[in-house]
UniProtKB/TrEMBL annotation:
It holds the Pfam family VKGC_lumenal_dom. GO terms for molecular function: gamma-glutamyl carboxylase activity; vitamin binding. Residues 6-265 form the HTTM-like domain. It is found in: Endomembrane system. The chain crosses the membrane at residues 12-38, 64-82, 109-130, 151-170, 201-222, 234-261, 287-307. InterPro entries: HTTM-like, HTTM_dom, VKG_COase, VKGC_lumenal_dom. Keywords: Disulfide bond, Lyase, Membrane, Transmembrane, Transmembrane helix. The lineage of its organism: Bacteria, Pseudomonadati, Bacteroidota, Flavobacteriia, Flavobacteriales. Its main location: membrane. It comes from the Bacteria. This is Vitamin K-dependent gamma-carboxylase-like protein.
Length: 435
């Protein structure tokens, strides 16, 4: 095991990946400013739906989130340039994680991946070549890295894509209906809009997604299929970028290919002046046991998290218990209509409320279809009225459609949601059965 993990290999792939990764971190942060994402998601809302347990994480007041993201963008540039690398990488990881946990209205698996990668990159010697750190301190320079630096990426990607593929094996995906719903909003796309409405295309995209996610990592690992898999990746990720507008993720996914091609190829293309490392040294550091323990725990958690929904009652597509942090990407379309009935607990009189007074349109979509968001909004109403000295009960009447099927009642209208507790590892009985 030591020979496999601590054998030194050329570090060209990691060095180039650091440069690309830093650039993408910069573009993600700056893009959030100029596309209006920060204003819509973090400034306009009265409050944000954070991950449960992180309610204390809320956006900075006023327009300070612009400065927050500008600083994150600066750290992205520092990562790209390799300047004070570990500090810059750690600060970006912490700041990105904070913004990830403080809001769920724009939940995205790609944001989760960026959070994980940011922390993984803190541990990697990605600044040992072509960096300002080396220029300022030449003793840091190295043309090699331990083999485990490559395999943490390979294993993380294998877990991600395998679960993404497995999650698609359910009727609504296999019969093309999910893809049909996703493509309806693309009908006005130039040239391809009409083509995307064809049922044959829906089947191709649905089964192509299963095959790509399930096979891409093994195919990239084998030399005979590597080039073909890479070209398939280019088409797949650029198609997703064009159709779904999912930010930096397609380009980051292409950058992962740096860890699958031979380091000599990467060096020849991107780092022509670099000396290629050809030795076969195995250097086991004193902290190897700690390192192995940390990464073993990390990957056990990564393997376990996407399985947890199997231990909850009912369908995760309906309850969403165990949905997040599980690589369940673009699997379903939900819509709903929900009303909140607020009752004065002392007088039993109804208190009229308007959702527009509390939530943005985007937040209202979550507060209409997602049980955890419905619960959080009920808690927010309870706290808001408590400040006025009014104890309340909140009853929710919610009808939800999944993948275009007939709507069904999601929440038990007889249960006072505001006075229910949240359980992270237990099914909530106030979520009505899907069938």
């Amino acid at each position: 095991m030591n020979k496999f993990l601590f054998k030194h290999i050329d570090n060209s792939g990691l060095i180039v990946f650091r440069i690309v990764f830093g650039l993408l971190c910069f573009l993600e942060a700056v893009g959030a400013i100029f596309t209006g994402w920060i204003r819509r998601t973090l400034i306009e809302p009265e409050f944000t739906f954070s991950f449960i347990g992180f309610e204390w994480l809320q956006p900075l007041p006023g327009d300070w989130m612009y400065a927050y993201y500008a600083i994150m963008g600066l750290f992205g540039l520092f990562i790209m340039l390799g300047y004070k690398y570990r500090f810059s990488m750690l600060m970006f990881a912490l700041m990105w994680t904070a913004t990830y946990l403080m809001q769920k209205s724009s939940y995205n698996n790609h944001y989760y991946l960026l959070m994980l990668l940011s922390f993984l990159m803190v541990f990697l010697p990605a600044n040992r070549y072509a960096s300002l750190d080396v220029k300022l301190n030449p003793s840091l320079k190295s043309i090699s890295m331990p083999s485990w630096c490559k395999w943490v990426f390979v294993l993380q990607l294998f877990i991600l894509y395998t679960y993404a593929s497995a999650a698609k094996f359910y009727p609504d995906w296999l019969d093309g209906s999910v893809m049909e719903i996703l493509m309806k909003s693309k009908a006005n796309f130039y040239v391809v809009g009409e083509l995307l409405q064809q049922k044959t295309v829906h089947y191709i995209l649905a089964y192509g997604g299963i095959l790509f996610d399930g096979l891409i990592i093994p195919l990239l690992l084998f030399k005979r299929t590597r080039k073909y898999a890479f070209f398939a990746s280019i088409f797949f990720h650029l198609f997703n970028s064009f159709i779904f507008h999912i930010g930096i993720f397609p380009y980051m996914s292409l950058a992962f290919s740096l860890f699958f091609f031979e380091p000599k190829v990467i060096k020849t293309i991107f780092l022509k002046r670099k000396v290629y490392y050809e030795a076969d040294d195995v250097i086991v550091p004193k902290y190897s046991t700690v390192l192995l323990s940390v990464f073993s725990i990390y990957f056990i958690i990564q393997i376990a998290l996407p399985l947890r929904h199997h231990f909850f009652e009912d369908d995760v597509l309906w309850t969403e218990e165990g949905h997040r942090l599980s690589w369940r990407m673009m699997l379903r379309a939900k819509s709903g209509r929900t009303t909140y009935k607020v009752i004065n607990a002392e007088t039993n009189k109804a208190i009229p409320i308007k959702l527009n007074d509390y939530l943005t349109k985007k937040q209202q979509r979550g507060a209409s279809t997602k049980p955890d968001v419905i619960w959080q909004f009920s808690q927010h109403l309870k706290q808001d009225f408590a400040k006025k000295g009014i104890p309340i009960k909140v009853y929710v009447n919610s009808f939800v459609r999944v993948n275009g099927k007939p709507s069904r009642q999601l929440i038990d209208p007889k249960v006072d949601i505001a006075n229910e507790e949240w359980h992270h590892f237990k099914h909530h009985d106030w979520i009505l059965p899907s069938k």
